[in-house]
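Table S2 (text version). Query chain:
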Amino acid sequence: MSEEWMENMRSSVQLELSWRARGSNSPFTTRSESPQWSDVDFALSAVFDAGGMVRLSAVQPAETWLIQLALDCEPGACRIIARVNSEDQKMSLLEWSEGERSDVPIVISDHAWDARTVCKSLVVVKAVFQAIFDNPEIEENGLKGFESPWFRSP
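Corresponding structure-token output:
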């Protein structure tokens, strides 16, 4: 991508928020285009506490590196996934990862996951989402703590 094209994109990326917490009275997902940070913050807190899902997506994903930041939660434990535009298919899905490998998996959404890809801190979740919210034009080198499940650190 040319430097000029990236400069033109810096202020034009629009985001969409969709989320649903378990136990809500509505069977529908809540959606908002061009959300405020307070909307994202509320969604993250509600889903982290009750379980559910949050998606922060680029409205025109073909024009950005980051397509979507996804959060899937059980109460107090979640996975953070980034879908990105990459020529290498094995690099188009990135998982948040921290810590050392554990032999005890953690179950989220009926699937057992490597414990190092499960976040148990709402502070970390909000920091990751705020970094994307504040800079939706983020590029690969700006997304910290994520790695491809195909090229995981030992």
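Notes on Table S2: Strands lie at 15-21, 30-33, 52-58, 66-74, 77-84, 93-96, 106-108, 111-113, 146-147. DSSP finds three helices and nine strands in the chain.
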